[in-house]
Amino acid sequence: MYEFFFVLIPEYMPFLLQGALVTVQISVLSMICAISLGLLVALGRLSNLRVLRAVLAAYVEIWRNVPLIVQLLVIYFSLPQLGISLPGFWAGVLGLSLNVGAYLSEVFRAAILSVEGGQKDAGLSIGMSRVMIYRRVILPQALRIAVPTIGGYFIALLKDSALVSYIAVNELLRHGTIVISNTFKSMEIYLMVAMVYFIISFISARIVAHVERSLTPAYLRVAQAQA
Transmembrane segments in this chain: where (predicted)? Predict the structure, then answer.
């Protein structure tokens, strides 16, 4: 019968939480960059510039069909051969941002198309510029539609951030691996790591749900409550 060493929890949890802080930092930064990139790519793919649409479509297809771990390894280990060297943390942010940004671009594009309809023509008919139409009419509605999906991708990004441990980023999983190399107690440590990931993801999911509710119009919240 395996004997659990619960004494490891108070001894090593502070060290694991230091790694968890890095996990949260890299995830939040990557998501901010991914949202910005995804929105720009979506707008570019809806433009009238055929070359731009083709280039952005190629980016989306390549980044969505190559494993994330391969993308991270290329950025961290291969780019220095071209004279582009990034610290592990920023290589991780870049890799995660490019990967999630490709997926979010499709989310934003679908959201924009779902609300664009005749609203663009209506805006043009009353003298609004295209920039003003998107900024004041289309994008606010599209972002509200996209929020639940964005939240789901953020939770997935939190968990995928464990892959940056392969490029020497001292996040939660790497800290757990360091502890295991010192204690040889993989069962206890991996369970502690899993528990911390669960807590972070659970809290993030609750925050996303709160944001989604706050962006839902009052009449829809009443209808959902009565359903």
Answer: 20-43, 55-78, 84-104, 145-169, 189-209
Structure tokens at 65: 């069909």
Other beta carbons within 10 angstroms of residue 93's beta carbon come to: 26
- Residue 1 domain-assigned? no
Closest CA to 171 of 54, 36, 64, 21: 21
Quote the domain boundaries for residue 182.
8-226
Cα 5 from chain centroid (whole Å): 35
Residue 3 falls inside a structural domain: no
Residue 183, domain member (yes or no):
yes
Burial code (b: 16+ CB inside 10 Å, e: under 16) for 30-64 equals bbebbbebbbebbbbbeeeeeeeeeebeebbeebe
**pTM for this prediction:** 0.89
The CATH code of the domain that includes 39 is 1.10.3720.10
With beta carbons less than 8 A apart as the criterion, state whether 166 and 73 touch.
yes
Running DSSP on this structure, what letter comes out for residue 48? Answer: S
Q: What is the mean pLDDT of each run of 10 residues along the chain (227 residues)?
A: 75 94 97 97 94 97 97 96 95 98 96 80 78 85 90 95 94 95 90 96 93 67 46
Overall number of domains in the chain: 1
On whether residue 181 sits in a domain, the answer given is yes
